[in-house]
Design goal:
Radius of gyration: 22 Å
Oligomer: single chain
C-alpha cells in the first residue's frame, strides 16, 4: 500500500476568491453605471467589463473546487482511494481509462502523473520526488495492465 499527500495552501484559495470578488465588483460597477445613464458612449467597454465580470465570478466559484484543497491518495491492492475535503471516493484499477506520466526534459525537478477515471481527472505533481513518482506509476501500470518503460538516460524528450 502506498500513500501520497498533496498539500495545498489556504492563501491560494483566498487569493483566487479575493481577486475574483474584486474583478466582479469593479466590472459590475461599470455595468451598473452604464445602465444608470453614465457613459452611454462606452458600449464596447461596458460589454468587455460584463464579460470580465463573468470571469471574476468564475474565479470566485472555482476556488471552492477540490483541486484547491489537500488531497490524499491511497493505493491498495485492488483499488485506490482519493480523500478530499468533501469526502472519500474509492475506484477500482479497472475503471482507469487513461494513465500518463509527464516527465520534462530536466527530469530531476518535477514529474506529473495523470489518472483519468471516467470524467474525473486526477493530477499528481511530484516536485523533487522522481523515485516516488516512478514507484506509483509503475504500480498503476502493473494494476491496469499497461506496459511501463523506464526512461533511460539516452532517450530524452526532444532528442533527435
Amino acid at each position: 500500500m502506498i500513500n501520497y499527500h498533496i498539500r495545498k495552501k489556504k492563501r491560494t484559495r483566498y487569493t483566487f476568491r479575493l481577486v475574483g470578488l474584486a474583478i466582479t465588483i469593479i466590472c459590475v460597477s461599470q455595468v451598473v453605471a452604464f445602465f444608470m445613464g453614465y457613459g452611454r458612449s462606452h458600449k464596447i467597454g461596458t460589454f468587455f467589463a460584463f464579460v470580465f465580470g463573468l470571469y471574476g465570478i468564475y474565479l470566485f466559484i472555482s476556488s471552492f473546487k477540490g483541486r484547491f484543497y489537500n488531497t490524499d491518495y491511497e493505493f491498495k491492492e485492488e483499488e485506490f482511494t482519493v480523500r478530499t475535503h468533501r469526502g472519500e471516493k474509492t475506484y477500482p484499477y479497472s475503471d482507469i481509462t487513461d494513465l500518463n506520466m509527464i516527465i520534462p526534459q530536466n527530469e530531476l525537478i518535477y514529474s506529473i502523473i495523470q489518472i483519468v477515471v471516467g470524467k474525473e481527472q486526477f493530477l499528481m505533481p511530484f516536485t523533487l520526488k522522481k523515485d516516488v513518482a516512478s514507484q506509483i506509476y509503475e504500480l498503476l501500470c502493473e494494476k491496469t495492465g499497461r506496459t511501463y518503460n523506464k526512461p533511460t538516460e539516452d532517450a530524452k524528450e526532444g532528442d533527435n
